[in-house]
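Page 37, continued from 36.
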């Protein structure tokens, strides 16, 4: 288990970087909400005129050893959208998996998932533990606990994110919009609240997105432990879309030095990989065996590309922060503690 206190300062820095990267269009705002970004399963969830699909991250660190929120039976998390977000499809509102038309691969509904800090790892099984509904008069999405949702870290650290899959909604025009969150997740169900800024962009941008869907049980690949000179227990899996929202295939990695590599497609540089290593570390590296190739994304089945990278730790113990960035797009970070 990661020695949290020994690396607390590094983790705080890492989480600050992660939040900054996730909110590259400006600092997040509000007390309860850390950031609001495009969902990792589609290329255009925050594009003007596209279907609405985004992830709200609360203020708790995403490290799985840190406890997330509790939602007691009958208590709610309410997400109020600005007026510009319009319901257009007339689709039902339902918890994921609750009906044949609201399941991964056939999402003919508006739904949402309570996540525990990494993609495809919900409070599971979702449809048995919480309901998902809509209040049209206030344009508010409501999660209601059907039983006590209590953290049990590190495998089940508690509620840290809300993924809203609103396929029956349409995003407004480009701009920054405040999303209000009110949650009965404080001690004894006390109300906590805050708002975050959702940036609706005019067109699709290249994106790299962490996914856990290819690992049995959707383990956390963002935070891993290993030993000096060893690989992480799990590879890093990403979904890639290009600037047209198409699968970003044929992307590989070209190493420049242990702390820096290039993401390349047909000898064209399309991104960068940077490793922040402990002082004196040598021998760390990021590699891929196969260039990114076509797959369908989890949940919605949107065509995308999968890139699987391996990270080998360097000689020194401590925290390694690995940043993957696409030119003209976003960045994601992975954290590896070596001891």
């Amino acid at each position: 288990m990661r020695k949290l206190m020994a690396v607390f300062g590094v983790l705080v820095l890492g989480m600050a970087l992660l939040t900054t990267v996730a909110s590259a269009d400006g600092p997040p705002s509000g007390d309860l909400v850390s950031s609001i970004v495009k969902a990792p399963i589609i290329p255009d969830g925050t594009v003007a005129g596209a279907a609405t699909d985004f992830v709200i991250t609360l203020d708790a660190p995403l490290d799985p050893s840190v406890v997330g929120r509790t939602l007691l039976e009958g208590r709610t998390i309410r997400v109020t959208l600005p007026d510009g977000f319009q319901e257009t499809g007339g689709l039902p509102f339902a918890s994921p998996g609750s009906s044949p038309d609201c399941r991964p691969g056939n999402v003919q509904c508006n739904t949402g998932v309570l996540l525990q800090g990494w993609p495809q790892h919900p409070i599971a099984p979702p449809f048995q533990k919480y309901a998902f509904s809509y209040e049209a008069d206030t344009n508010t999405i409501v999660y209601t606990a059907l039983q006590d949702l209590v953290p049990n870290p590190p495998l089940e650290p508690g509620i840290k994110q809300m993924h809203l899959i609103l396929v029956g909604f349409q995003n407004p025009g480009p701009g920054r919009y405040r999303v209000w969150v009110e949650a009965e997740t404080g001690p004894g169900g006390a109300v906590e609240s805050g708002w975050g800024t959702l940036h609706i962009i005019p067109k699709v941008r290249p994106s790299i997105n962490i996914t856990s869907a290819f690992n049995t049980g959707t383990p956390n690949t963002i935070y891993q432990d290993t030993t000096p000179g060893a690989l992480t227990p799990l590879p890093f899996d990403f979904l890639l879309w290009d600037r047209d929202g198409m699968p970003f295939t044929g992307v590989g990695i070209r190493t420049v030095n242990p702390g820096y590599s290039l993401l390349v497609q047909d000898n064209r540089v399309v991104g960068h990989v940077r490793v922040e290593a402990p002082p004196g570390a040598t021998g760390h590296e990021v590699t891929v065996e196969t260039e990114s190739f076509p797959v369908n994304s989890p949940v919605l089945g949107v065509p995308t590309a999968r890139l699987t990278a391996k990270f080998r730790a360097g000689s020194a113990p401590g925290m390694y922060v690995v940043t993957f960035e696409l030119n003209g797009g976003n960045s994601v970070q992975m954290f590896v503690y070596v001891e």
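The CA atoms of residues 24 and 221 lie 22 Å apart. Flag for discussion at group meeting. The chain is about 5% helix and 40% strand.
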